[in-house]
Structure prediction request, 440 residues.
Amino acid sequence: MPRRKLDPLPTVAFHILLALANDELHGYAIMRGVEEQTEGRMRLGPGTLYGSLKTMLEAGLIEELDERPDEENSTERRRYYRLTAAGRKRAQLEAEKLVDLVRLARTKRILRGLHV
Amino acid sequence: MSEKIYAWLLKLYPRPFRKEYAAAALQLFRDRNRVERGPLARVRLWVDILMDLALSLPREHWRRDSDWTEVEGAFHLSEEAVCRLAKRDLVHSLLISLFIALGMTAGWLGNANRVWLFSVYLSFAMIAIWRLVWIPRNERRWRAYRLIVGTDRLQQMQHGNDVTIFKNQIIKINEDQYGLRIFGLREGSQTAITFPLDHHRIRQTASSIWIPVGLAGYEQARAKIFGWTNRIGTLRAPGFQDMKPVFFCAASLLPAVLLVHLTSWLLVIVAAYYGLVLFAVGADFSRPLRRPSAHEQRHLLRSCCNLPFLVLLILPMIRIFLPL
Prediction:
């Protein structure tokens, strides 16, 4: 049976989806976005980042925009990516799955406090 | 300096990844290098890069080998294999011709008491020359394009309408003055999408398909086979859905194998056996040192059934299917 790509959704892919949730970003900005949203715990290297972007492009979760000049440095051209409707839906499903897990952890008294 | 080192390290990635993302990866490295200054930050940068290499290198190399497990991937890889199949290098053709010649003459010479068959060597030399000449000539007539396909379809706005062709609906690809025209058959009617050859989708790739253009008979054969496979692909037989990737992979390779290889190898083998049969029935070749005895003639055909000979004969056939 052929394995479906990104099933289950890897953590890196989920973080990239979250980074792209509100903006169209280029590779370095995605890396910074992931680093910020994980408070420095996850720094994506170029190989991991572009490998994941390729897989997500193939799965239709994100799409690439036409190359355009960097706003800060007009001599450099960058590849920008944005979330597709399918990508947004997938991120939502993944987040809901995590919420269910947290809820379960609370009912089992593993997680305490005002989480979620 | 560090940029140069990273550029060199990027060469370790597989070629498709490099072609597509090396510039972007180098740009990302440049950005980090520019922002993260100071000895500690530099050390952290290089630790990150080396960790990233250790994790992503095997994954990227593995990805290429495992793509065939996907339906779209099967299509992709098979088209790539088509290109590899048709781009036979001269050394390979020469070696395989030599293998066949050695296999057959080893059997003959050993059993015919060192009968020197000039004509056999001559015929093999002619076949080898034909193999070397024919393939490059054929190669010159066709090209392969790599075309970006984000998902499993091609889309284009035409006169305000969104035209879509799915990968498995492509029936014909032509190159003309307008560019690369991809024809698809949807619900009985033919639609076409045209890309100028310098279109950004042709230069940049995400998921991609290889399209051989101009190979005589290839498009027609492929269209027919896709017609059959699409018909068979609609079957809802139990277990068939699991077999689909393998089925489509084999189906899309079939025309290339038939047109490019089997015809040429068939001619090689037919010519070789023709020579063998002539010799076995005692035909007078140009300059045999002596005519084989009746006993030797009886054993000639049987001698060709020895294991080394069969291996040498079957090896090139296996090699044809290896790119799968």
In short: The mean pLDDT of chain B is 60.
